[in-house]
Amino acid sequence: MTARRGGFAAWIVGFICVIGICASAFFAVGFLKNRSADAGFAALKAEDYETAAENFKRAARFALRPDAEILIALAKAQEGCGDTKGAKESYARATQADNNDPEPHYALGKIYISEKNFGEAEKEIKALEDIGTDSAKRYADELRTEKTTGAVTGAIDNIFKNVIPKSLPDLFKKVLPSEDK
Q1: What pLDDT digit, counting tens, does each position of 133-176 carry?
Q2: Residue 80 pLDDT class (50, 70, 90 cuts)
Q3: Cα separation, 109 vs 87, whole angstroms
Q4: Which helix (H) or strand (E) holds 18?
Q5: What is the distance between the alpha carbons of residues 181 and 178, in angstroms, rounded to a whole number?
Q6: CB-based contacts of 143: which residues, under 8 Å, 6+ apart?
Q7: 8 A C-beta contact, residue 63 and residue 33
Q8: DSSP class of residue 176?
Q9: What's the pLDDT at 153?
């Protein structure tokens, strides 16, 4: 005797069930991403950066493809926590997700300038200029100004550190009369 495997209708029903399960999983993942993102935005608004970062990491994990908005919010939360390295990575991932969004390029440029990494900051300025929108051009001009100011400040700091002897303040204390008398 041969075992009966079912007919064409059984295969169709099975196929429809598999499609339904896949669609349910897709919607469940989307729901989890949106719920985590909403909780992250609420925590970010309340300036609870650690909770926001945790929620945005979860939302980024549930995203089927990189979501620039979530990655930018994650980077802001990481900056609020003092995690500059994590913020740089999140902003870089956001630029890969949406290269035409000027906000992550601007934020990366500001981080690079604060680190005195002017070469990388110039790359972000160039990327902003390539975007070409008015806001991107304003961001590029602002970064260029900050870069120039940072370079001048860094040069002055180097002069004070390397040219002026470290014993000079002690010399002034010895020469100038003390105010304690």
Answers
A1: 898 899 888 888 888 776 666 666 666 666 666 655 665 566 65
A2: very high
A3: 12
A4: helix 8-45
A5: 6
A6: 106, 109, 110, 113, 121, 124, 125, 128
A7: yes
A8: S
A9: 66
This prediction's pTM: 0.72
Residue with tokens 């200029």: 129
Q: Are 106 and 95 in contact (CB under 8 A)?
A: no
Residue linked to tokens 């990575």: 89
Place of tokens 């303040």: 169
CA gap 106, 91 in Å, rounded = 9
Q: Identify the residue whose tokens are 């991107």.
A: 136
Q: Say which amino acid occupies 97.
A: A
The torsion angles phi and psi of 110, rounded to 5 degrees, stand at: -65, -40
Q: Express each pLDDT in 95-144 by its tens digit.
A: 999 989 999 999 999 999 888 888 898 899 999 999 888 988 998 888 88
Residue with tokens 């070409």: 132
The answer, yes or no, to whether residue 181 has pLDDT greater than 60, is no
| 75: its two tokens | 């980077």
Neighbours of 130 (CB within 10 A): 12
